[in-house]
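Section 3.1: Structural characterization of target chains.
Under the original work plan, the team committed to producing a structural model for every single-chain target entering the pipeline before any wet-lab resources were allocated. The record below documents one such target. The sequence was received from the expression subgroup and is listed exactly as submitted; it comprises 369 residues.
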Amino acid sequence: MAQMPQRRTILKAAGAASTFSLAGCVGSGGNGESGGSENTVKISLAPSGFQGIVMDHIHSDTDILKNTLSEYGYSPEVKKSWEGSAMFAAGRPDFETMGSLEAARLAANRDLDLTVAANLAPNFVSWWTKKGSPYDPANTGSAKATVDKLAQEGDKFALGSWSTGDVPAYKILMGAEYGYDFGQDKSDFNIVTADLFAIPQLLVDEEIAVGTSSPIHGGAPFLADEPEIVPIWPSVGDKLAEVGFARPQLNGWLTTQEYYSNQPDAVKGLVQAWYKGLEWFFDNPKEIVVSNDQHLQQLGVETKKQAKYIVDWGINLEYGNKSPIIYNDIELTDEFISGDKKFLARAAEQGLIPSSWDEHLEYQKVPQE
């Protein structure tokens, strides 16, 4: 049986640091260390989620990645790591999974010129509460009424960390749609931090009123049988899309502009290999996720029923989501690029990323097949 992260934890004071990052949280990788010849493509991903399953398929279980890159004269080295973003900033891997907001911040702060080469996943975390609680939209009447009540009552709202990739989305959404401040220095909410995987249990135990979570971040055990928690809205990405923004990118394939310019075929090979893995995964995701214990572990669940729930929620869209949590079409579109730039421009206006971000970040439409 897969081992779940410990569900209970002591609440930390608002602003405390957390080692868990949503950036890259649905990715994974194979094996191998950095280094090698100039024809070696060095790839780093975090070790979890649907993306972990896809990477295992194309790199460890089959030769899809090896053969696709070989057609362009390259060979892959893949590393599993939660430190991929730091390694990428230090110039070690050629590719890393990273959201465009994190990439924009990194590019501007480190004076790096970076390229978003594919769109892998949207930001899908949401706000949740205990089913039947005073903050349940079924009791307040609407998501807006729940948000208003939370601001007025001052009950505890829990984040996984101030450093996670969903926080800027909340800040923008709260200001644009509800007129509230949501920040570490200034906020209309009583915000605390807690282990992200512990938040569903804290909700059920009524130690917090509302918290950030998702079925793949510890929520599935509280949803697969009789639901004990409910979302305020299906996902923050869907909600931002409703009010005129693009769904914020949780993960994309990121490389440097120099690498893209000098090694365009390596970029093309990785994107095309990934797309082949997605075709395999989307053909029968429910059977794939329950096919072995490693996949359960990658999804952070204890049972096959919980894994199937995650597929029905995040792929089959049976519980209100309007977008899957991993995309099967990853080639950048004009619509995505325009919407993402609008989101990043608003983030810059609110001081979430440096105003010079657009001088360092570009988008490239790399063909997926």
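Confidence is low (pLDDT under 50) at residues 1-36.
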